[in-house]
Amino acid sequence: MFFGITSTRIAFFNSNGAGLSVLLLVTILGAFIAGIAFKGKSGWCSSTCPLLPLQRVYGQTPFANVPNSHCQPCVGCTKNCYDFRPSVAYQADLHEPDPNWTAPRKLFVSALPGYVLGFFLLVNHPGIALPEVYLRLAVFFVGSVGLFYALQALLGLRLTVIIAIWAAAAINVFYWFSGITLADSFATITGIEVPWLRWPIRAIVLVLSLFWIARTYVKGRQYEEEAVSRPALPVIQISPRAAKVAKQAAAASGPEVRFTGSDKPAQAEIGMSLLALAERESQPIEAGCRMGVCGADPVAVLGGGGCLSPPDEDELNTLRRLGFADNTRMACAARIQSGPVTVSLTPEPGSPRPGGTADFDRSIVSVVVLGNGIAGVTAADFARRGHPDCEIHVVGSESHTLYNRMGISRLVYGRSAMQGLYLLPEQWYDDHQIVAWLNTQASRIDLATQRVFLATGDTLPYDRLILAMGSSSASPPVAGFGRPGSFVLRSAADAMQIRAYAQQHGGREAVVAGGGLLGLEAAHSLHELGLRVTVLERGGRLLSRQIDEYCSELVDAHFARIGMQVLYRAESESLTGAERVRGVTLKDGRTLQCDVFLAAVGIRPNVELARQAGIAVNRGVIVNDRMETSAPGVFAAGDVAEHGGQVFGLWPIAAKQGEAAAVNALGGDLGLTSEVPATILKGVGLDLFSIGRPAAQPGDQVVVDEDPDPAAPSYRRLVLSDGRAVGGIVLGNHPEDVAAVTAAVKNRVEVFPAQVAELQHGNWGQLKDAGRVSAPAGA
Predict the structure, then answer these.
(1) Of 70, 147, 388, 657, which residue is 20 to 30 A from 107 by alpha carbon distance?
(2) Residue 274 maps to which CATH number?
(3) What is the dihedral of CA 299, 302, 307, 309, to 10 degrees?
(4) What's the CA gap between 668 and 660, in Å, rounded?
(5) What are the b/e assignments for 432-459, b being 16+ CB within 10 Å?
(6) What is the mean pLDDT of residues 381-390?
(7) pLDDT of residue 751
(8) 234 in a domain, yes or no?
(9) DSSP secondary-structure letter at 358?
(10) What's the CATH number where 544 sits?
């Protein structure tokens, strides 16, 4: 568009004042009308403005930063979005490894100085026919491109530097000729002839150009140092076409999976999960924790069930809770080992009511569960399995049935509200003969009379009571917290309230206090909503309790690359703004503007009800290995329970505790002696999993396999203590390795020296068999 419009000046617009006036008028009116019609739609200018590539050559777009000026939520219409940090986006454009992205930009800048020179030499063309003028202009265009690539090959300069040199040459050529016009214009306006004025103009442009080239070189070096903290491993480069052919050939030899409703079967890779394959094939499937415990992605295996990996304990418990037919699998946990397999994304209904055990305590008439989260629902489920006749009441403060609490961040930016988040239908309670009290508060527990009093005025007598009230987000000690614009994010209602507030008040800036898992997920959701986000981390690095220092650097680089800022050793002190939040003051005196302030500084178990009843509490309700509290007949599970001095706040552990509480409440004997914490950072454009001990202790061995590609970093780390796996980290798209590392750490399997060498060469799938086989020869 730029070359086309400007070249028409030679033939038409330079000699036709009326035509030029019409062109300018249409441009001005078009910009004004489109600015009104497409307000807040980033990418419109990027699609229509002929000056945009010229502006990007000089790193000067947009002229003014207007936060939140793009679509809400952002539709990702630009690869390196200039709406957030223009200087970083400019460098990202120059360093982009994708040739399909960089080639047109290199072509434009390489042609620019030759085109500008040819234009000025040919704009007045006495005695030269118009076709010959454009032929000569094409020669200048092609010559400039050829010289650019020749110098790049011969001199070996950085791409950022040679682009800056070419752009500087273009602007100097422009002002060499325009300097004459500017001097003549000065004479026309003032009546003073100063033909020498052209030389100061040319000199000033030259000096500024040299300064700009030097600055571009420095900024480029800084960008490279920040984006890649360690040198990249050697990578064999193949052409995109060859890579595509190789991928197709590999897929063609893999197992065949057919999704019902699809025209043709999909070719899978060995070890690939049904969820990953369904997502690759654009099947309408929900994704949850990807560990087989949340129940977000059940599917029916209509054929070839033996070609899939067998379910582990977590998946079996989830499948039992969901109550679908026996052919149901969790798509994220079922891995393809051979074929063919036939899958339906709609699971089939199972038995309406699971049968209870033949031996149960008939003296237990009523079981009351306080809490409708994963711990409470699991407890109710196992109570019904163990006792087919007793009354079971579940009291939940939220109006929703069980939903995927790990996915609530998407409610901040997603347009479909709760769609896809529900893990159980309302019919589940009726099918299991469980009385659900939703949107209901328990006001008091009377241990002496064994009754629970509800705030509605109802009373529930119990023989066994299971406390699963969960936890709330801790409120930060920040002056002004609680005024409009300040939030926590713990429930679906919190997420939807944040989304509504940001829309109502046109939020542009957001500050998130807390760089933990929930804080980063919440910050990313606000970023997706269209706000410019700053995360405050009071420590020196991200996720220091879950991952090692180098992995923290990779996570920080990811967030910086997408336009989010993290401030370290930064704590909020007070919020500013009279009627609503306008900014935050940090303890070190710095101030930040913000329209939304979100605190993610930890959880606080909901223990007040238990405390008032006289049940022993510390940080949480104190329980033993059987989930028993200090009160007879009262058990606790989930985020409200403190087991072994710890409140874990993790979904898989809450489910296990709910099962143990129910089994033991009915007279069983199921003990939980140790829990291995596993955490996942999800929904932020980066796959991160950690389990067990992230840090090595003296005498431990650390096995690392990495590929620090800035665009898609891969990092796997295993901590061995006395030769056994005690901690692991998986960063990147390695779902099959997550399962292997989880099993290895949970079972503390022995990893032999020969297997360590295989891990260092990238073969992490062998961990699934580690400890189950004898030591390899020479181990």
Answers:
(1) 70
(2) 3.10.20.30
(3) 30
(4) 9
(5) bebebbeebebeebeeeebebebeeeee
(6) 92
(7) 86
(8) no
(9) S
(10) 3.50.50.60
Distance of alpha carbon 497 from alpha carbon 507, whole angstroms:
13
What is d(CA 262, CA 281) in angstroms, rounded to the nearest whole number? Answer: 10
User: Which distant-in-sequence residues (6+ apart) come within 8 Å of 455 by Cβ?
Assistant: 440, 441, 442, 443
Give the CA distances from residue 455 to residues 396, 441, 772, in Å, rounded to whole numbers and listed in that order: 12, 5, 54
Place of tokens 């790049």: 152
Question: How many structural domains is the chain composed of?
Answer: 5
Domain membership flag for residue 245: no
Once rounded to an integer, what is the mean pLDDT over residues 424-443? 93
Give dist(CA 450, CA 599) in Å, integer: 38
The answer to whether residues 589 and 701 belong to one domain is no
Average pLDDT value for residue range 643-656: 89
User: Which residues constitute the domain of residue 653?
Assistant: 366-471+605-665
Clarify whether residues 407 and 451 are in a common domain: yes
406 against 533, higher pLDDT:
533
Identity (one letter) of the amino acid at 512?
V
Q: Which residues are CB-neighbours of 145 under 8 A, at least 6 positions away?
A: 107, 110, 111, 114
Output DSSP code: residue 279: H
| Interaxial angle between packed helices 130-155 and 2-11, expressed in degrees from 0 to 180 and rounded to the nearest 10 | 140
pTM summary value:
0.65
Instruction: Using the CB atoms, write b or e for 280-290: b if 16+ within 10 Å.
Output: ebebebbbbbb
DSSP state letter for 647: -
User: Which pLDDT tens digit goes with each residue over 152-184?
Assistant: 888 877 777 888 898 899 989 988 888 887 777
Same domain, 498 and 389: no
Could you give the CA distance from residue 157 to residue 153 in angstroms, rounded to a whole number?
8
Other C-beta atoms within 10 Å of 577: how many? 18
Residue showing tokens 């050939």: 249
Give the HSE-up count for residue 79: Cα atoms under 13 Å, Cβ half-sphere: 13
- Asked if residue 481 is part of any domain, the answer here is no
Same domain, 197 and 82: yes
82 and 107 fall within a common domain: yes
456 and 323 part of one domain: no
CB distance 382 to 356 below 8 Å: no
The answer on 573 and 531 residing in a single domain is: yes
Residue 498 sits in the same domain as residue 563 = yes
Helix (H) or strand (E) holding 152: helix 130-155
Element (H, E) at 452: strand 451-454
pLDDT tens digits for 98-109? 777 778 888 888
Residue whose C-alpha is closest to residue 625's, from 676, 677, 669, 678: 669
pLDDT computed for residue 407 by the predictor: 84
Non-local CB neighbours of 68 within 8 Å, separated by 6+ positions: 40, 506, 507, 508, 530, 531, 532
**pLDDT tens digits for 96-151?**
767 777 788 888 889 999 998 988 888 888 888 888 988 999 999 999 999 998 98
Contact call for residues 740 and 759 (beta carbons, < 8 A): no
248 found inside a domain: no
Tokens at 541, concatenated: 């690095």
* Helix or strand run (H / E) with residue 509: strand 509-513
Structure tokens at 170: 């273009």
- Which residue among 277, 311, 344 closes a domain? 344
The pLDDT value recorded for residue 599 is: 95
Q: Are 177 and 202 in contact (CB under 8 A)?
A: no
Please give the radius of gyration of the chain, using alpha carbons only, rounded to the nearest integer. Answer: 32
Q: What is the mean pLDDT of the chain?
A: 84
CATH number for the domain including 759?
3.30.390.30
Residues 68-81 have pLDDT tens digits of: 455 554 555 566 66
Which of 204, 344, 211 lies closest to 274 in space, CA to CA? 344
